[in-house]
Amino acid sequence: MGRNVKFTEDERYRLVLDILNEKLSHAEVCRNWNISSNYYYKLRDKALEILKAGLKGSSSQPVGKVNRLEQELDKLKRFAGEQALIIDILKKKDP
Fold first, then answer.
1. What region, left, alpha or beta, does residue 75 occupy, with left being phi > 0 and alpha being psi -120 to 50 degrees?
2. Domain residue limits, the chain
């Protein structure tokens, strides 16, 4: 019953939607997509795991990381500016 051809990303997305929206029975999804029961459950469990991780706030992690990186960048820009001033002052002292 399995299929040898790999699904495209778009096909996997539509397949997961078919699985999660439960409009079709397990058997109908397997038959329509020519997949095994094992693949159905494997894909469903993986999709639910990803969804659960996303709902736990994992998606906010990149925002916090971006904010930290922006603060670090500002600090480094200030440091570079100060160093440039020091170099300029030292150049003016040297005849």
1. alpha
2. 1-56, 60-95
CA atoms within 13 A on the CB side of 19: 22
Q: Is the pTM of this model over 0.85?
A: no
Q: Is the dihedral of CA 50, 51, 56, 61 positive or negative?
A: positive
- Classify residue 29 as exposed, middle or buried by CB count within 10 Å of its CB (0-12, 13-18, 19+): buried
Give the CA distances from residue 53 to residues 37, 39, 63, in Å, rounded to whole numbers and listed in that order: 24, 21, 16
In the CATH scheme, what is the code of domain 1-56? 1.10.10
- Tokens found for residue 32: 């329509």
Amino acid residing at 21: N
Give the pLDDT confidence score for residue 67 in this predicted structure.
84
